[in-house]
Amino acid sequence: MNGTALALIVTGALLHATWNLLAKKAAGGAPFVWLYGVVSLAAASPLVVIEFVNGTAAFGVSAWLAIAVSAAAHLVYSLTLQQGYRASDFSVVYPVARGTGPLFAVLGAIVLLGERPTLLGGLGIVLILLGIAFVADVLAGVRAHASKARAGILWGGMTGVSIAAYTVVDGWAVRTLAIAPIAYYAFGLLLRTLFLAPAALRRTSALCEQWRSNGRLIVAVGILSPTAYLLVLYAMQSAPVSYVAPTRELSMLLGVLFGARVLRERLSASRIAGTMLLLAGVTCLAVAK
Predict the structure, then answer these.
(1) Which positions of the chain have pLDDT values less than 70?
(2) Angle of helix 90-112 versus helix 147-171 axis, rounded to 10
(3) CA–CA separation, 91 vs 260, rounded Å?
(4) Strand (E) or helix (H) holding 31
(5) Which of 118, 155, 207, 210 could form a disulfide with 84 if both were Cys (CB 3.0 to 4.6 A apart)?
(6) Which candidate, 88, 76, 75, 90, places its Cα nearest to that of 22?
(7) Is residue 41 a contact partner of residue 186, using CB atoms and an 8 Å limit?
(8) Sign of CA dihedral 89, 164, 45, 83
(9) CB of 156 closer than 8 Å to CB of 100
(10) What are the backbone dihedrals phi and psi of residue 131, each rounded to the nearest 5 degrees, phi first?
(11) Dist CA 208 CA 151 (whole Å)
């Protein structure tokens, strides 16, 4: 993985952990998701116009198929994540979601996209997945038999499946189909907004309440969320999906720190060990050829 791709992914990870922390504070469900999607779409629209004026945005049947599938997967991701944040703790849902996502994404990239990581790259993937397991501390949650922890694991795992789905599709779109990332992501945003609009607009009182209560959070998430993922899409243009997917889970490390410092959640020995494994794995991917 080249240095530029790594820098894009690390920056995206920081932004991703930040907007998830804000989304956890809001925990506003579908109305919150729709409103921040509208903000994201408004922010991205001028950039799409520039893409078309410059002639860098072109779409065929395969491109539109990718956009539709990605939009559906992103929408499922947003809704399940919000449900998870309403049902359980940030320190359970976020690591499990981000941990199961790359596991399925790497498998998908290998099986569907034909990617073959090098030995060092494979070692990095294994170290990162082990680190994820330690940071998520899933077994401790299962042993606890706490309904809140089980709910976090369930919703986090469902979120992880949707993460894997859109990661593989988006990697195929920007690498194989060579679609301009900004235009690709913006049209996906448009579809997501349209998909959710009927349900959201039937609850105008809930939309108004969300805006009154969480207007600043909606704007912040609406800007940070697409920016974080656009950086990942650009990284996918020059780095394999099977490397990008686990490396971007450095956001888990930040999520654990945010949970400890901002939400006053416990930083266990397991999570410290997992953090070290994550850093070792990312180092392997950074130097893999």
Answers:
(1) 51-58, 103, 135-147, 149, 263, 265-267, 271, 286-289
(2) 30
(3) 9
(4) helix 29-53
(5) 155
(6) 90
(7) yes
(8) negative
(9) yes
(10) -60, -40
(11) 29
Q: What is the DSSP letter of 202?
A: T
For the chain, the maximum distance between any two Cα atoms, rounded to a whole number of angstroms, is 57
Three-state helix/strand/coil letters over 135-178: HHCHHHHHHHCCHHHHHHHHHHHHHHHHHHHHHHHHHHHHHHCC
The amino acid occupying position 256 is: V
**Residue 251 and residue 32: Cα distance in Å, rounded?**
22
Rounded to an integer, what distance in angstroms lies between the CA atom of residue 29 and that of residue 14? 23
Q: Using an 8 Å Cβ cutoff, are 70 and 168 in contact?
A: no
Q: Take residue 153 and report the two structure tokens written for it.
A: 């694991």
Q: Tell me the one-letter amino acid at 231.
A: L
Closest CA to 147 of 97, 104, 88: 88
Q: What is the model's pLDDT at position 145?
A: 46
Determine the Cα–Cα distance for residues 55 and 48; give it in Å rounded to an integer.
11
Residue 39: predicted pLDDT: 95
Q: What angle do CA 182, 158, 275 make, to 5 degrees?
A: 80
Neighbours of 64 (CB within 10 A): 12
Helix, coil or strand: residue 81: helix
Percent of the chain whose predicted confidence (pLDDT) is above 90:
19
Report how far apart the first and last C-alpha atoms of the chain are (Å, whole number). 7
